[in-house]
Design a protein that fits this description.
- The protein is of the alpha/beta class.
- The chain has 17 helices and 13 strands.
- α2 crosses α13.
- The protein is globular, with a radius of gyration of 20 Å.
């Protein structure tokens, strides 16, 4: 990693990676057979490229803008290269199903597809096993923002390229905050006070949560100083060597989550089994709960929170440095032993070219991984966007860290939701850090 990594990352407007995949992509979960969840959407005969991705759950009659945006780039690749892209998709029905990540790992390890849309923990795991192609030679790779390279370079190889850069934030019902004369929170203490006021005024559960995204609270608090204090490289080196403990960084965020649960601001039992947006979206839209957490693109699409009956704002998570966006990285990868490797690399090069990303970004109103492509965000995203343009954020995934962040933190947060103590959660971080040091 370059010295003073944050200063070398080009300023960019807010980010929302993989609108095509979004909230059904999980970074952890139980193991079950996918069976009926697997869908083959198209069949081809000659010069085909197999693409494995999630399929966002949609409501009847509601356009899936995110899917449409990605489809446009696929069509560009098909027309330019004279080939056919076959979609294979999977979506978990509930918390008992095998997760998308579980299925993606199995398929990639068994060379079942050519291109995969992957979450950060899966990217890192597959890259460390040598299962992913080096994409750094693609023409489109020359245009990537530094933040994308930071997150997706493993052992010197660029192993994944996104069509969006995802930023997570708190989705706020501004009308409800105004009703109780509450200022949008900056710090954990201010956030707790807002929740207290809501609870005392009859809001049963101020925070709508699901089984995937509570780690954003932890990561924002854990790494606010690491990524914004000017000593990023040295702090990560200390973590990678074992000189520093991840548990010391993580403890304040876990204690904060435990307090939210103990005070009844989060329903831990419901969160433990709830799918993203499906678990809390209805109450947020019905104005029964004033706060949820989600990714940038959810503010743009009617399948999530793109159409509300109230003023919505998206802000960063509470931290010692104020409202803090959390940015994990996902992306498209090509299997190292893909059957149609040459065509897959060529297709991906078209799909993430500046021409294709301009179409994708304008359609989906997200932040592009290319430094040459910009788009204006919707008004609701301006607070989050402003912080990122100031170069203030936390990376939720960083290939420069030996211990994978996004998936591991998610799993251990789920332990907390299931009744584990904070000390037990910290012991688990210590265990997996020791494991990473022995690799």
């Amino acid at each position: 990693m370059n010295k003073n990594m944050k200063n070398n990352i080009v300023k960019f407007t807010a980010v929302s990676l993989v609108g095509m995949a979004m909230f059904v992509m999980a970074a952890c979960g139980e193991k079950r057979s996918e069976g009926q969840n697997m869908i083959v959407l198209e069949e081809g005969e000659e010069r085909t490229v197999n693409l494995f991705s999630p399929m966002e759950k949609t409501e009847p009659g509601v356009d899936n803008v995110a899917r449409s945006a990605s489809d446009k780039t696929v069509i560009m690749a098909e027309e330019k290269l004279g080939l056919k892209v076959e979609y294979i998709t999977y979506t978990a029905e509930d918390h008992l199903d095998k997760t998308y990540d579980d299925v993606a790992l199995e398929r990639a390890k068994n060379n079942m597809d050519d291109i995969y849309l992957l979450n950060p923990d899966v990217i890192q795991a597959l890259a460390e096993e040598g299962k992913l192609m080096d994409l750094s030679g693609l023409e489109s790779a020359k245009n990537l923002r530094d933040v994308v390279r930071t997150a997706n370079v493993v052992d010197g190889k660029l192993v994944a390229i996104p069509q969006e850069v995802v930023a997570y934030g708190l989705f706020i019902n501004k009308d409800m905050f105004d009703e109780y004369q509450l200022t949008l929170p900056e710090t954990p203490e201010e956030f707790l006070e807002c929740c207290r006021v809501f609870k005392e005024n009859g809001i049963e559960t101020p925070i709508g949560a699901n089984r995937w995204w509570l780690e954003t609270f932890v990561l924002a608090q854990a790494y606010a100083d690491l990524y914004n204090g000017g000593n990023t490289e040295a702090e990560i080196a200390a973590l990678n060597s074992g000189e520093s403990k991840y548990s010391d960084y993580m403890r304040p965020g876990f204690e904060f989550l435990q307090e939210l649960i103990d005070c009844g601001y989060i329903d831990a039992e419901k969160a433990y089994v709830s799918e993203a947006i499906e678990g809390e979206g209805e109450d947020f839209l019905a104005q029964k709960t004033p706060i949820v957490m989600a990714y940038w693109g959810a503010a743009n699409t009617d399948t999530a929170y793109g159409k509300t009956d109230f003023e919505m704002l998206v802000i960063g998570f509470p931290s010692s440095r104020g409202q803090m966006p959390v940015i994990p990285m996902t992306g498209f990868a090509v299997g190292a032993e893909a059957e149609h490797a040459e065509d897959a690399m060529a297709a991906l090069d078209v799909m993430v070219s500046d021409e294709a990303l301009q179409v994708y970004t304008e359609t989906n109103k997200v932040i592009s991984p290319s430094k040459n492509v910009e788009v204006d965000c919707v008004p609701a995203l301006k607070p989050l966007n402003d912080r990122i343009k100031e170069n203030v954020y936390v990376l939720g995934s960083n290939a420069g860290m030996k211990l994978e962040q996004w998936g591991n933190t998610c799993l251990i947060v789920r332990d907390l939701l299931g009744g584990a103590t904070v000390d037990e959660c910290m012991a688990e971080f210590d265990r997996i850090q020791e494991e990473s040091l022995n690799k």
